[in-house]
Write a structure and sequence with these properties.
- This protein is of the alpha/beta class and 281 residues long.
- The chain has a domain at 57-252: Rossmann fold.
- Helix content is 35%, strand content 19%.
- Strands 5-4-3-6-7-9-8 form a 7-stranded mixed sheet. A 3-stranded antiparallel sheet has the order 2-1-10.
- The longest helix has 18 residues, at 231-248.
Length: 281
């Protein structure tokens, strides 16, 4: 009998010297959508290294920015959502929670993109997250918005540009998309808002309407460019979502234990080993 010799496969073992790594998560209670009697399940969100745990906004411009995004999802025609500079993907996740649209998030920071992927998987939400930098025409080696949409065959009817995005540059590289699909535009106006104002007349020429015009000059405020006349409908949904978000933190599900509210806002540290974390996340 001839014995077949071979190497035994060594089983990987975690070294006793590996220090546990703390993976932080936060649980966020969500409100019912306006007019709905169904309360969605809470979101369990990983916290990216060095980032603050995300929570529903409690007041002011942050509430209006999120409410504006959710209102646009209610009004836009059927189609995909593209969230650029998505950070840890909270807006993308909420788009998947409150609708059935295809949702894609693009974020250049690897830790935030990883946290967004973890969140989508943990909450079983169909959000595609891509670690990628979209750029203005002629800037660096990244893709423009038009090039990205063409390569992925994405047909977005809602385009959100997060607070870290160069809104003016990205829209300059998305002229074909704006002409062909005319998506709703949801923008967070930060230090890049001034540059975007130079392009507003071009968007108006395409039939866009600047709905939340009073918010444009303010730092950190959101505003919307709509490809159709929808001011009244948008105002109603904006008000309804603002009210829902403001009351969400005060509502406890009827079957929740007495400490549910405290638990919902707590940050949980989950200790895992490095090797285990690489294979499970």
């Amino acid at each position: 009998m001839i014995r077949v010799l071979g190497r035994r496969r060594r089983r990987h073992r975690t070294s006793p010297s590996v220090e546990p790594r703390s993976r932080r998560t936060v649980t966020v209670q969500l409100p019912e959508a306006p007019g709905s009697e169904h309360r969605p399940a809470p979101l369990v969100l990983p916290v990216a290294p060095g980032a603050q745990p995300w929570k529903l906004p409690a007041a002011g411009a942050a509430v209006r920015e999120l409410a504006a995004f959710l209102a646009v999802l209610d009004l836009a025609p059927a189609g995909a959502v593209l969230d650029v500079a998505a950070r840890s993907g909270e807006h993308s996740l909420l788009a998947a929670v409150y609708g059935t649209r295809l949702v894609r998030a693009v974020e250049p920071d690897p830790d935030r993109a990883h946290a967004a992927r973890q969140a989508a998987a943990t909450n079983a939400l169909p959000v595609v997250v891509e670690e990628r930098q979209l750029v203005a025409p002629g800037q660096g080696n990244g893709e423009t918005l038009d090039a990205y949409v063409s390569r992925t065959a994405l047909q977005p009817v809602v385009l959100r540009l997060g607070s870290g995005a160069d809104a003016a540059g990205l829209l300059a590289g998305g002229a074909e998309l704006l002409h062909r699909l005319r998506p709703w535009l949801v923008l967070a106006s930060d230090r890049t808002a001034g540059g975007l104002l130079d392009r507003v007349h071009d968007l108006v020429a395409l039939g866009y309407r600047l709905i939340t015009e009073a918010d444009v000059p303010g730092l950190g405020r959101g505003y919307v460019l709509a490809p159709e006349a929808a001011e009244s409908a948008f105002a109603r949904r904006l008000h309804a979502w603002s009210a829902a978000l403001l009351t969400a933190r005060d509502v406890t599900p009827p079957d929740a234990p007495p400490d549910a509210v405290a638990a919902a806002t707590a940050v949980v540290d989950v200790s895992v080993h490095d090797d285990a974390a690489r294979t499970t996340t």
